[in-house]
Amino acid sequence: MKLRNRFLLATLVGLVLAGGVHIAAILAAPHFAQQDAFEKILPTLSAEQAQIISAPGGGNTWLPLPDPSVAVAACAFDLEDGPSRISAKTGAPFLSFSFHTKTDGVFFAVTDRAAVRGDLEIVIMTARQLDEARAAEDENDPSRDVRVVAPERRGFVIVRVAAPTPSLRAQAEEAAKAVSCTVDEEP
Prior knowledge:
Strands 1-2-8-4-5 form a five-stranded antiparallel beta sheet, covered by helices on one side. The protein contains four helices and nine strands, in the order H-H-E-E-E-E-E-E-H-E-E-H-E. It is elongated. Strand 6, helix 3 (127-136) and strand 7 form a beta-alpha-beta unit. Helices cover 29% and strands 30% of the residues. The model has no long low-confidence stretch (mean pLDDT 81). It has helices at residues 2-32, 37-41, 127-136, 169-177, and strands at 51-54, 70-78, 84-89, 95-101, 105-111, 119-125, 146-149, 154-162, 180-183. By secondary structure, it is an alpha+beta fold. The protein folds into two domains: 1-32; 37-183, Immunoglobulin-like.
């Protein structure tokens, strides 16, 4: 009986240990991934326009199952050099933005409904950069920018433009490519 109890205890301890290692490996995998979403979008850091990563009707994409009615573009940001400005002209196709950190996922999202007179200006900044911008702001001329405080210095923006009909696919792709991603010159 004692041998059987020891065998069961050893088996139970082995299963618990194996389960713990398995769960730890799954949770740690994203931190060690070489080709995660940020690494794929990182080359857009020096570009001034969003880069298409999936377009309606096919083409170059690294998304596993791209939506055929949505053009998707992306650009990376690094707040080390200052706030990042994301600018877009709004129009007929639905336009949305989601802001992601390098490691923790989505921290902000906005649609074209936030546009003022057809222009959507979003400034991503650190809390310190926001304080500096508020201190330099003129009380009589407040900023019309949507200001977003990023939890990390590096991240990326995903732009989605809807193409509800096949005839609007080219327009959706052009709208996604027209999104500007630059380092903000103003405080």
